[in-house]
Specification:
This protein is of the alpha/beta class. 55% of the residues lie in helices and 16% in strands. The strands form 2 sheets. It has a 5-stranded mixed β-sheet, sandwiched between helices. The chain has a two-stranded parallel ribbon with strand order 4-6. A hairpin with a 2-residue loop joins β2 (110-114) and β3.
């Protein structure tokens, strides 16, 4: 789904906005359509209603913003081993088998396996202020060498350059930043 599509925008918006849009569609159907077609016109809002339900579900399950900020502060003060242990535990809770890799030989720090699918994770630069394309290229090379179809690059505290974002998108690498890292770590 395109990140600027109506559905994507509504998924990122507060849940109630979708229901307001559904109400506006129903009002427009009542105002502009003959009475015998009102139900058909009002049903045009059903996909947006579904998106509203999905947004509500996500937002109810999401941790409180204060907890997210607290977790990001904790992450900023963690040494590598503690951060790696925390990531390991979070992915294990999510149902992945986690294998730590010797980072001296590869740019990947962990191998996640779930349902026969392998994902390589590069997380050692989680505290870096800026992230360019080079570590993503190294992760992609490790993915190719390991025949892993997916990768995750953890940039918990810094900014990822636009070029790096494009490279990640084009090569099947998910970039976890800020709030997404905190939410992963807070899921229980």
């Amino acid at each position: 789904m395109s990140e600027n599509s109506l559905f994507a925008v509504l998924l990122r918006s507060p849940w109630w906005i979708s229901f307001v849009v559904v109400g506006l569609i129903a009002l427009a159907a009542g105002a502009f359509l003959p009475k015998e077609y009102f139900v058909v016109g009002a049903l045009a809002g059903f996909p947006i209603f579904v998106v509203g339900c999905m947004a509500a579900w996500r937002q109810l399950r999401a941790p409180h913003p204060a907890k997210v900020a607290e977790m990001l502060e904790a992450v900023a003060s963690m040494p590598w081993r503690s951060f790696a242990d925390t990531l390991d535990a979070a992915w294990a809770r999510a149902g992945y088998t986690v294998e730590r890799l010797n980072s001296n030989n590869t740019s990947a720090d962990m191998r996640l396996t779930q349902g026969g699918k392998t994902t390589l994770v590069s997380a050692k630069r989680w505290k870096a202020a800026t992230h360019g394309v080079e570590p993503l290229r190294e992760l992609h090379a490790a993915m190719v060498a390991a025949d892993a179809p997916a990768g995750v690059y953890v940039a918990a505290l810094g900014q990822v350059s636009d070029n790096a974002q494009v490279f990640a998108r084009d090569h099947g690498i998910v970039v976890l930043q800020g709030d997404a890292v905190a939410q992963l770590l807070l899921r229980g």
